[in-house]
Amino acid sequence: MMAKTELTRQLEKAIYRATKNQGTFGCFEVTIGWFGHERVDYMTYNTNGEFRCYEIKVSKADFHSNSKHTFVGHFGYYVLTQELYEAVKEEIPKGIGLRVYDKDIRCVHSKGARRQEPTVSVDVLKDSLIRSLSREVTKQYNSENPLIIEEKNREISRLKGERKYYYDNYWAAIERYDPRYAKQQSPRGE
Question: What global pTM score does this model have?
């Protein structure tokens, strides 16, 4: 597998942000089936039981490569740069949706996909998504900075507590040494 380009990573972030809704769960690089030969670049599953498959392509060579365009879910989408879209728009099959991004990674064109019956069973899609999500959790735990988000959230909470402590002490000192100023200026409404 080739290393991802910076543009690929930017498009991944863009499609993640675009699909990050309550009741929608997504994962990158979902391998379909046990020891499957097909991999979806990004797959989402929602509480309506719908699977959406996204193929991220950044160049004409990438679009025409031997790797499959895996649209096995209820809906299939290409995630493309505007330049690539202009070059391949006549080759995009009917029914496939689009998310097209400009050089600043702003969505400039989107088109919904036509619903289809999944080409593999819903159980296989669920199992594939679960395995891939588990892989991502394992990678996070095995990384040099496991649970970094949880650690950062704890640090934010600690700093908020410290801020409140110093803020309260500051206004208590002002009230003690200059009550008139404190009464006029205090944002605490006293």
Answer: 0.73
What residues does each domain of the chain span?
Answer: 6-142, 148-185
Q: How far apart are CA 91 and CA 16, in angstroms?
A: 25
CA neighbor of 79 nearest in space, from 28, 130, 131, 31: 28
The DSSP code sequence of 154-179 is: HHHHHHHHHHHHHHHHHHHHHHHH-H
Which two structure tokens, joined as six digits, stand for 117?
């019956």
Cβ-proximal residues to 39 (8 Å cutoff; 6+ apart), any chain? 29, 30, 31, 32, 67, 68, 70
Q: Give 32's strand partners.
A: 38
Residue 96 makes CB contacts below 8 A (sequence gap 6+) with: 71, 76, 77, 78, 113, 114
Record: fold of 6-142:
Trna Endonuclease; Chain: A, domain 1 (3.40.1350)
Task: Report the SS3 class of residue 125.
Answer: helix
Checking if the pLDDT of 146 tops 70, the result is: no
CA atoms of 127 and 135, how far apart (whole Å) = 12
User: Higher-confidence residue: 150 or 58?
Assistant: 58
Q: How far is CA 98 from the centre of its chain?
A: 17
How far from chain centre, in Å, is Cα 186?
A: 42
DSSP at 59:
S
Q: Tokens 């949880």 — which residue?
A: 150
